[in-house]
Amino acid sequence: MVTLPFQMIEFVGMDTQFLESFLLVVEHGSVAEAARRLNLTPAGVTQRLKALEQELGMALVSRSGRTVRPTEAGWSILPQVQALLAGVRDLRNVANEKSFAGKLNLGAISSALTGLLPPILSTLAEKYPLVTLFVHPGTSNDLYAKVISGELDAAVIVEPQFTLPKTCDWATWRAEPMIVLAHRGTTERDPHAILESHPFIRYDRKQWGGRLAEDYLQQNDLTVRDRYELDSLETIAVLVDRQLGVSLVPDWAPPWPEGLSLRKIALPLSSQKRRIGVLWRRSTPRIRLVQALLTEAQQLEMASDAAPVRKAS
Fold this sequence. Notes:
With about 325 residues, this protein is α/β, with parallel strands linked by helices. It has 3 domains: about 90 residues, Arc Repressor Mutant, subunit A (Orthogonal Bundle); about 100 residues, Periplasmic binding protein-like II (D-Maltodextrin-Binding Protein, domain 2), CATH 3.40.190; about 100 residues, 3-Layer(aba) Sandwich (D-Maltodextrin-Binding Protein, domain 2), CATH 3.40.190. About 40% of the residues lie in helices and about 25% in strands. The strands form 2 sheets. Strands 3, 4, 5, 6, 7, 8, 9, 10 and 11 form a 9-stranded mixed sheet that branches.
């Protein structure tokens, strides 16, 4: 069930377009940018702001040159305006069963943004032109927290290595084996010897995928000589190409940076894989949009070794 904050009930009789104009002006600090996004003239947005201020009996924004900032009163109502507009969007989505319209807030890690999502987003845009999709980049840890809090409807992340709360569900899209990444000119054949004899470019241990690499090193008693530690897989690949070291990374979905001279070396008898998939809240009012996302991923056969994608329930 979609509910609106009690404090905002008094706003319901007001044209929500005025509130939306106020919110966009505050978010972008510009009447011109808000007008562009609303397909209005700056004068039209200004008129909406004035009408809203007259209705509430207080100044909501102040101007300094071309920059617009909320007044103290504007800041005070901002959280309630955001909550009300989110509630209105949810109501429209729940009620709009036939036309399949709505807004989906989707988080995604960087490798999913470039490798997994583009074909899915293309199909969704073609099949469901009334669906507005907002994609929020981030790390798995941060995006997980935003799904749990309700800030995001779903996120494409690395599978957590802990038990998920009962309020959420998970579907795996792709299982990526861990590999040793070395320059093509590296002559050694033993992946463990390569890791221990070259400078090591470490996949950030604060990232869930980086923890898998660290676990493998510890489980096999491997001692490496750290040179760098970073969270960008693409950058790691470039540094390896420059012969600045070797790395232990997941074999992530293409595209990889072009023009690199690299070797991908399988690990002996390793079952460790970085699993990429979708986390979503079962209670989200936009469950049908999540369901469409999962269905398109399944139909595109994201990876030959991916687990079956389950529909949202």
